[in-house]
């Protein structure tokens, strides 16, 4: 999870490439370290993630605040959708993210995966910006 100069790639730096939006964001899995959110420690965040079949649902502002508080993601599954109805608990539990506009995954502090729905990429250019900043991306 490092760029070509060896600097760590954090969630905040990836989300900076997304741009302002009105999407609904949901943290479906999280383990990491940082300063946490005001009034919430990371244990509470993990509890919120696992207490709802839709995960920890946030607005763009909230997910940016969350990202800014995270110093390192060990594991993360973050999805974006047009609205909360698109976060179908059964599909999410089955690992079916086809209703999502974007999926960000961090695993074992070693790699990031950024997946963007084709229609979303056409209108936003997110993957183009990811490739420009970090090189090869699929």
Write the layout of secondary structure elements.
Layout: H1 11-15, E1 24-34, H2 42-51, E2 56-58, H3 60-69, E3 70-81, H4 89-93, E4 102-107, E5 111-116, H5 118-124, H6 126-134
Antiparallel strand pairs: 1-2, 1-3, 3-4, 4-5
Describe the structure.
- This protein is α+β, with helices and mostly antiparallel strands and 138 residues long.
- The chain is 33% helix and 28% strand.
- It has 6 helices and 5 strands; from the N terminus they run H-E-H-E-H-E-H-E-E-H-H.
- The chain has helices at residues 11-15, 42-51, 60-69, 89-93, 118-124, 126-134; strands at 24-34, 56-58, 70-81, 102-107, 111-116.
- It has a 5-stranded antiparallel β-sheet.
- Strand 4 and strand 5 form a beta hairpin.
- The two termini are 15 Å apart.
Task: Please describe the structure with a list of short key phrases separated by commas or semicolons.
138 residues; 33% helix; 28% strand
Helical amount: 25-40%
* CA-based gyration radius: 14 Å
User: Uncertain segments of ≥5 residues (pLDDT<50)?
Assistant: none
Strand content: 25-35%
The main β sheet shows up as:
5 strands, antiparallel
Average of pLDDT? 88
Distance between the termini: 15 Å
> What is the β-strand count?
5
Secondary structure category: alpha+beta
Assembly annotation: single chain
Strand order of the largest sheet: 2-1-3-4-5
SSE string = HEHEHEHEEHH
Count of runs of 4 or more consecutive helical residues: 6
């Amino acid at each position: 999870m490092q760029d070509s100069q060896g600097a760590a790639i954090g969630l905040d730096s990836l989300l900076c490439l997304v741009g302002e939006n009105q999407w609904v964001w949901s943290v479906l899995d999280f383990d990491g370290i940082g300063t946490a959110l005001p009034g919430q420690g990371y244990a509470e965040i993990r509890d919120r993630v696992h207490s709802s079949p839709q995960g920890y649902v946030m607005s763009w502002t909230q997910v940016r605040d969350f990202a800014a508080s995270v110093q390192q993601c060990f594991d993360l599954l973050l999805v974006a959708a047009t609205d909360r109805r698109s976060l179908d608990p059964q599909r999410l539990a089955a690992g079916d993210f086809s209703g999502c506009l974007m999926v960000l995954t961090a695993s074992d502090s070693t790699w990031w995966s950024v997946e963007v729905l084709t229609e979303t990429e056409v209108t936003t250019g997110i993957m183009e910006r990811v490739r420009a900043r970090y090189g090869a991306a699929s």
